[in-house]
Amino acid sequence: MKIMKTLPVILLLMLMMSYTTLLAATTQSGTQKIETSIEETSADESVIDVENAGQSPQIIDSNENAEVLKVYQNSMDRVRDSKKNMLFGEKVNTGGLPIISWLEQEETPLLELAKKYPESRHAAEGLGLLYKELHERTQNEKYAEKAADMFIQAEKFGIKSGLVGLPQYAQELSSLGTQSQLDKYFTMAMNVYPDNGHLDLQYAKGLARFKNSRADEFFKQAISKRDMGDFQPLTSYAEDLFDKGKYQKALEVLQQWSDSEGYAFYLHFLKGFALEKLGRLKEAQEEYQQFQNAQTGTTPEVTQLLKSFLQIPSKYRIPGSELQKGLPFKTESKGAIRTSSDTFSRKAVGDIL
Length: 353
Known about the structure:
The chain is mostly helical.
């Protein structure tokens, strides 16, 4: 009981730490790590120690040098400022240019970098993140396809350079580009990381985006490989089943979660939604209450902050529902924080964009 009372505070701290991570770095590495690597390396060195500069501390790109990382860092600073503007309305000094034109200026130095160092993972990744940001800003699919191509190249270069352990761009490919690009990336990555459940999950979500029936197969594989305490494969599959109107099957998926795995508050909401759709109102009310318990902080200020984070996709609002009164629904809009199972994952909002 004591654990349950302190849990919202723990969740709040996790969310706040995730936002700090987001603002400190566009990628998992962090701008500061890149700055440190550059400061410790003279500009005329052909190869630098990038052990702390890549997306993962275990990754060493043998062909990356100070010039590459300086251009990468400058471009990512601009992308990061754009994110802060979209998420929090912070002003950006664009020198009088429209923000799209200001972002597009970073394409040329990154392309020149990629031409000079044709197997540079950071050059490809930088272009991918730039195009992804431009897609978020414009919703122009040409940027989504360009971003997907660059992430595919970056993964390939990373593998060639000896990248082992974890795929780096699965989440990006699940939401960007064409069916052909999706298949190309995941075929390559799964050959290298055949036991990685994260790949199965992201491939399933990508296939679902194209309404491909193979999505079910990969959702099930992701669930079979999930770690104890990882609810995202369950909630993601349930959300896909909701989209198809399969509420009973979605409930059965969600019921695979065991209380011994911990407290998964978003899972409680989804179970409540499924139960209400199935007419099991008393059980639905109990699940909604479990979700609402996560919004109670030790002070009114903490409670309000928790409510601002723990928001539900508006598509799960049931018209006229008495049980859903008081639940924190939010309409998604361009640049808003994602309100899906990704938002409620263990990484919380650290996975934004």
